[in-house]
Amino acid sequence: MRENVDFRAPIGWLSQSKRVKVYVDLENACGGSLLVHEFQKVIRNSILNIRQCCTAQVTYSVGPAAISSCPELIWDWEFARFLPARGIDGADLALLAAIKSEPFRVNFDSLILISGDHIFADEISALNSNGIPTTVICQKFSLSNKLKKAAVKIQYLPEFSSPFTEQRTA
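Request: output the structure for the sequence above.
Response:
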């Protein structure tokens, strides 16, 4: 059964998981590469909250545009593994390759994906089928239908407002 919860709510559901893998498509979570500098700390602080209630190994990816607009990113995320990305869907492809290469059954209890991109849907579905519970955390407007169907649990990030973001309606 799928559960939709606001990400700002308490994260007590994680108490059941002792070891969690967290994969972050930071550009998707922030609303685009130009907004990473403005919102990456909000995402970072949410992940730090997750790390307080369980052992979490965090991997994130962004492209060169996000790094050049936010050079402090590497230092702000020193607790996480960084996967550099280039080109269209570069961060997605880097994270997807990392997810596919991980030995989940042996080492981790669950997976959290912070992205709404459809490219992850098949792998999320396969992990669920193999008994690895998955949670997708994203902004409501960025969640693809395919990923929504694949995830066991869905939580939403707060909507960010910026001069660069356009008003979106559901």
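Strands lie at 3-6, 19-25, 55-62, 81-84, 110-114, 134-138, 153-156.
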